[in-house]
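Progress note, project year one: complex with RRO.
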Amino acid sequence: MSIQLDSHTGVAGAVHAQAERDTQDALSLEVTLCGVRFRNPIVLASGILGLSEEIFARLARSGIGGITTKSCSLQPRVGWHNPTIVSWGHGLINAVGLSNPGVEVMVEEIRAARRHLQPLGVPIIASIFATTIYDFGTLARYVSEAEPDLIEVNISCPNLDAQHEEMFSSNAYVSGQVTRAVKRNARCPVVVKLSPNVDNIVTIAREVANNGADAICAINSLGPGMVLDIESAKPVLANRTGGVSGPAIRPIAVRCVYDICRALRGMGVQVIGTGGVTDARDAIEMILAGATCVGVGSAVHARGLGVFAEMTAGIADYMRRHGYRSLDEFRGRAL
Ligand code: RRO
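Model obtained:
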């Protein structure tokens, strides 16, 4: 599937004009996540775009608040065969299989991304994935060399090799130990990404918080699920099953964010609310549920990079209508 990069022309102009209007209104979309300043709360979710020069330039113009890189492992991973991402009508199903060039290449890519995006005040979240607790610690040390603003610890990919790999986020104790190993080696704040495919996400969230997580990203894709092609009578994905994302999973993501924010209130752990966010209304819903930042993934596939400017403009409109000057004034209001 190809991604439409600029869904309409004049995105840069629109972003600039909006920013000027907001300054005149003394209205700010700025947020601080774990001590890192974001110009607005909208963050590109992991695994959505590669890091090429062309993408940096477009991302910088798109009005995005921050970006998360594709999860990288110690060694390169080829991933699953094509097709790896399919639109099924209400969102996407994917089994990319953690394809990435390995941490050595990723460190160089993150350094290049920093050179482009840091002068614009767009923080970078480096996502890491490993199959052992020890390797998570080693990866955190390596990836810290690229000086990302934050590290995302991906313990929730649903597309693992079931024979040999385990989704750590279904086990509270292991999730805590991974967090501890990463914290010991990271030179920046740590965000742990959790799965909705568990009995009680709050138990897992509490354990990672008790082991030093600075923030939680909720949620990864749902599933694994399966979609069949009824003509060939075969699964549409080469891997047969895959993670389900997009608008259909948003109510689950909102519930997870709400429950985590309510349970962890007072622990100083912030949340990136991710899952099916498609427009400004959905982003506002996440903030009302307590999220500090809002991750956007599948919507970029569906609508291109124009979604970021549309979302921030829509949030600013909402704030004007309600007389809010900052996101602090309505974050967590639903709790
Ligand atoms: O690469 C993937 O297949 C993948 C990952 Br790492 C993840 O965290 N979530 C997902 O839906 N797919």
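Residues 306-322 form the longest helix (17 residues).
The chain has one domain: 9-329.
No further modelling is planned for this target in the current period.
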